[in-house]
């Protein structure tokens, strides 16, 4: 199947736009790759320090036998259910490496915070920039420069983008991501959301809400909804950076350890007993690879956080993408899955239906993904259309993920849930924004109503509780961008807005903050750029202004005469709010990141 013309055109535009920075990036990689290996190149004292803490046999392998040495970067902690399984992974990796005549060292650990724990608290204001801290932590780990390859252990929201950004700054290394998998299904996401809405109305008390939440989030593994964490795993599969089909195998599955050992074989170029040099990650992640990730995101209705994160990831490899690229691809990429919040199924049901392998196979067959890309395996991206299993002799085998085992969860390109990817770019006198419409009812794609302007999530909640929002309303929540307060997610807004919509009111959210696509059925124009704190137009909006959000036409505008709008004063971030949002619980330490952050469409990068 030939590649779809729009996919080719978008890729060509990205390639042309990126020609200068990508060429410079590849030149740096080539220069680094031509050096001698670490223990031969470095001074004797440097080498002695590097191997002082490992067993004598491993020292001998590294220094005398000149065996490959794998650097492990881990996001293990037991605060995150998704990362708790990683505790024993380094020992498994080292054991497998030794059996193959190689060695492995934990090069370093990176912080990993849980947005589920910090949601709606001051800690959430560190969340976005934790991605850049993780990228820097990855760089610190790998800068010991004694490694011939890397294995990256991380799953959740900012952790995977941070690890990937850091790894791309060491793009000369063959690198494989090692996931841990989702937790078994507990209380369904639909039931959990129902209880949250009831709690927002005062119909369920704290104990009832706590019982529901603990039944939903109940053991090790990622949360089972298709948010940023699980979207990460889908994108890594589409980029060919995993052992194929690894993403959604649960932590307790007997296959999980075998797949982790296969990751060691893969990074050493011995995957599936076939000699193959795993390419450097900086060569693998090219324009075609990035486009494949974008297509997979759209085809699965994934997290809108990746309209920020993957811009930053691409920049790390010298590639420049923007929201227009996502929007153009969304026009031709069909929606192939219904996974909560875009449906009732969770990721375990998605995996049972065929998972990432089914989606990738469908996209390749339709010419919607580039087939001619490098991956960590010799078989290329087509291998990722398969799903792994254990044979009777405990060997890994892969079989086609097609056909779908449940067409209420995953459908072929010929009969999609929607002809387009469900992501729309909005432009207008309120700036540039994105909206995820894949789960928004068709009769809610256009909302026109008076604005109510809020400076915080808490202020909106207070107005909701007081009954002030029981009407058609566009809630504008500003001062939530990267420069204002670190661009926290605003999930606490979902229950009250859902309640209002359930009462029959026409409501929408407009914000320069994030919602990660989990706004669900409520229309939400998010990531508005430029943000209010940078003088963006949200700083001009006043209570009562009529705002029109039109996801059909792709517009976001305040219906105020042009001359009046041009002359209207731009409000300033209140000094009391700036001080309050910038202090306490570690927020002072991130002041430099807030000050230097680029726009959301530029990846909210703090390091460029």
UniProtKB/TrEMBL annotation:
What keywords does the record list, in alphabetical order? 4Fe-4S, Carbohydrate metabolism, Gluconate utilization, Iron, Iron-sulfur, Lyase, Metal-binding
Q: Kind of enzyme, top EC level?
A: lyase
Requisite cofactors: [4Fe-4S] cluster
Domain named Dihydroxy-acid/6-phosphogluconate dehydratase C-terminal: residues: 409-604
Record text on cofactor binding: Binds 1 [4Fe-4S] cluster.
* Gene Ontology cellular-component terms listed: cytosol
Q: What GO molecular functions are on record for this protein?
A: 4 iron, 4 sulfur cluster binding; metal ion binding; phosphogluconate dehydratase activity
Quote the SUPFAM superfamilies the UniProt record gives.
IlvD/EDD N-terminal domain-like (SSF143975), LeuD/IlvD-like (SSF52016)
Which residues participate in [4Fe-4S] cluster binding? 156, 223
- Entry EC number(s): 4.2.1.12
Biological processes, Gene Ontology terms: D-gluconate metabolic process; Entner-Doudoroff pathway through 6-phosphogluconate
The reactions it catalyses are: 6-phospho-D-gluconate = 2-dehydro-3-deoxy-6-phospho-D-gluconate + H2O
Instruction: Cite the annotated pathway.
Output: Carbohydrate metabolism; Entner-Doudoroff pathway
Membrane-spanning ranges: none
Pfam families reported for this sequence: ILV_EDD_C, ILVD_EDD_N
Tell me the ranges covered by the Dihydroxy-acid/6-phosphogluconate dehydratase N-terminal domain, including all copies: 68-382
Q: Does the keyword Lyase apply?
A: yes
Function summary: Catalyzes the dehydration of 6-phospho-D-gluconate to 2-dehydro-3-deoxy-6-phospho-D-gluconate.
Q: Which family does it belong to?
A: Belongs to the IlvD/Edd family.
Q: Which NCBIfam families match?
A: edd
Q: What is this protein called?
A: Phosphogluconate dehydratase
């Amino acid at each position: 199947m030939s590649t779809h013309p729009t996919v080719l055109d978008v890729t060509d535009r990205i390639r042309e736009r990126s020609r200068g920075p990508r060429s410079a990036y590849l030149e740096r990689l080539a220069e680094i790759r031509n050096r001698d290996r670490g223990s031969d190149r470095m001074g004797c004292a440097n080498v002695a320090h590097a191997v002082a803490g490992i067993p004598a046999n491993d020292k001998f392998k590294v220094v005398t036998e000149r065996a490959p040495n794998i650097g492990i970067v881990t996001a293990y902690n037991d605060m995150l259910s998704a990362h708790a399984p990683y505790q024993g992974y380094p020992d498994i990796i080292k054991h497998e490496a030794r059996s193959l005549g190689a060695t492995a060292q934990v090069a370093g650990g990176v912080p990993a915070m849980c947005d589920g724990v910090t949601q709606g608290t001051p800690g959430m204001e560190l969340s976005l920039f934790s991605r850049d801290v993780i990228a820097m932590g990855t760089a610190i780990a790998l800068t010991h420069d004694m490694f011939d390859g890397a294995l990256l252990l991380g799953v959740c929201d900012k952790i995977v983008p941070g690890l990937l950004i850091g790894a791309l700054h060491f793009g000369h290394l063959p690198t494989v991501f090692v996931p841990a998998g989702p937790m078994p299904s507990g209380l369904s996401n639909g039931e959990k959301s129902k209880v949250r809405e009831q709690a927002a109305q005062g119909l369920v008390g704290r104990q009832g809400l706590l019982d529901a939440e603990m039944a939903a989030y109940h053991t090790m593994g990622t949360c089972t909804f298709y948010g940023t964490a699980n979207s990460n795993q889908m994108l890594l599969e589409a980029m060919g950076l995993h052992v194929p089909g690894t993403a959604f195998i649960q932590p307790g599955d007997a296959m999980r350890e075998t797949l982790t050992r296969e990751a060691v074989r893969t990074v050493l170029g011995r995957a599936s007993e076939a000699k193959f040099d795993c390419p450097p990650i900086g060569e693998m992640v090219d324009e075609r690879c990035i486009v494949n990730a974008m297509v997979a995101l759209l085809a699965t209705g994934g997290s809108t956080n990746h309209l920020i994160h993957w811009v930053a990831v691409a920049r790390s490899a010298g590639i420049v993408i923007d929201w227009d690229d996502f929007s153009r691809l969304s026009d031709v990429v069909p929606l192939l899955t219904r996974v909560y919040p875009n449906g009732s199924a969770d990721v375990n049901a998605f995996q049972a239906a065929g998972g990432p392998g089914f989606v990738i196979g469908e996209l390749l067959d339709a010419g919607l993904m580039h087939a001619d890309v490098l991956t960590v395996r010799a078989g290329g991206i087509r291998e990722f259309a398969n799903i792994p299993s254990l044979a009777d002799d405990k060997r890994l085998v892969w079989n086609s993920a097609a056909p779908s085992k449940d067409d209420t969860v995953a459908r072929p390109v010929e009969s999609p849930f929607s002809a387009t990817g469900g992501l729309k770019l909005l432009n207008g006198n309120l700036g540039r924004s994105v909206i995820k419409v894949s789960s928004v009812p068709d009769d809610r794609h256009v909302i026109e109503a008076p604005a109510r302007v809020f400076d915080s999530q808490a202020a909106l909640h207070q107005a909701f509780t007081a009954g002030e929002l029981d009407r058609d309303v566009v809630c504008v929540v500003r001062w939530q961008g990267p420069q204002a307060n670190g661009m926290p997610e605003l999930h606490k807004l979902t229950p009250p807005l859902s309640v209002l919509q359930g009462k029959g009111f026409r409501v929408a959210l407009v914000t320069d903050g994030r919602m990660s696509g989990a706004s669900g059925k409520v229309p939400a124009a998010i990531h508005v750029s430029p943000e209010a704190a940078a003088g963006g137009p949200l700083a001009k909006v006043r209570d009562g202004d009529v705002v029109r959000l039109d996801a059909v036409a792709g517009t976001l505008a305040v219906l105020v005469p042009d001359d009046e709008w041009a002359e209207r004063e731009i409000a300033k971030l209140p000094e009391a709010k700036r001080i309050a949002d910038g202090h306490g619980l570690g927020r002072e330490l991130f002041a430099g990141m807030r000050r230097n952050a680029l726009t959301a469409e530029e990846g909210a990068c703090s390091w460029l």
